[in-house]
Amino acid sequence: MAGTTPPAARPTVAQYVQRALAAIDWSKDSALLYLRGIGDETDWATKMGPEMAKRLNRTDVSLSEVPYANVNTPGAGSASGEAVLTEVLAELRRRKPQMRVFLAGLSLGAWSIGDTLADNPGLRQGIAGAALIAHTNMAKAHYRMDAGLIREFNLPGDNFSRPINGPREKVLAAVDALYDGIKPLTLLKHLPTMLRNPQVFWQFYKFSIHKPTAHDNNGPYQDAAFGWLNTLIGPPRP
What we know:
By secondary structure, the protein is an alpha/beta fold. The chain is 47% helix and 12% strand. It has helices at residues 13-23, 44-56, 74-95, 108-119, 121-124, 168-179, 184-196, 198-208, 219-233; strands spanning 30-35, 61-65, 100-106, 127-133, 150-153. Helix 1 (13-23) crosses helix 3, helix 3 (74-95) crosses helix 4 and helix 6 packs antiparallel against helix 7.
């Protein structure tokens, strides 16, 4: 259409990495990096950051965001998160190997963290703690909720966190396709996968039309996750 402004190009992985590294307070001994959920465009500086700072409730830790293309296509979004976080963690280790690094992510952000640590054992060894909040069932890797330095904080009744039936790749392909629009041919192509996972896709449908789901009730679990990370970080160092 004449006069229509094309959408702005998203930053590259390198640009996201640069932003993430610039936001870290390198004078601190510990850093907590946060990855937001799918489609969330809340401003970090004025709203999301202060909310996370209130949850953390301490000033001796660098608290910042790792931005990535958290688009409404989970496969592409999680891949972007993993690509950016991998480079950020590698650069953190190179610049300041003694810095204690903690991670927290919500939904797609949790998925990105979990996949990054699963695919990069060397980077995983350098993580002092990671909280995966509302971790999704389509991620490559899953972790315990009651032990370990990497923990899931999942919501009761959240079908996005329940085990899936069938190959992960088929479920992910179906979800990615449906995010492009619920069309007859798309439904027909992915119907067998959807029928094997009715709870997941029913919740996905509600989520896609902005109806309330259990996945949205993550506030108390973010509080619990940050409380656990705070315990891991320990008392302020002199």
